[in-house]
Amino acid sequence: MDKDKIISELSFKAVRSSGAGGQNVNKVSSKVVLTFDLNNSQSLSDEEKERSQKKLKSKLTLDGILILNCDEDRSQLKNKEIVIKRFLELIEKSLVIPKERKATKIPKSVIEKRLKDKSSTSEIKQNRKKPDL
Question: Which residue intervals define the domain Prokaryotic-type class I peptide chain release factors in the entry (predicted)?
């Protein structure tokens, strides 16, 4: 995965932020909307696209477009940096191949110890009973 190549495929849009902020909110477009077309990306291989689509299924549109927003800061430039950082982390996490789990065997000594403990507990409980005369 080449970060520079992926970043060049991103498209940004500046939008007015919602919520409180006084007059600044009405005049300044500081919110940044990032869009990335996963299906038509040249920087990712087909295998990587497939893996990303599976992991990012809930975040993608029906057309396979990833949309991220950021309106944390009053500066458009900082919001753009934040959203790019978020996007790269998201893509890196989606491309990680999980390790296959190896089933482990229970050692014989552990099984024997468990059975021994069970029998000793059973013996203790038997000794609590009143003897049959």
Answer: 16-32
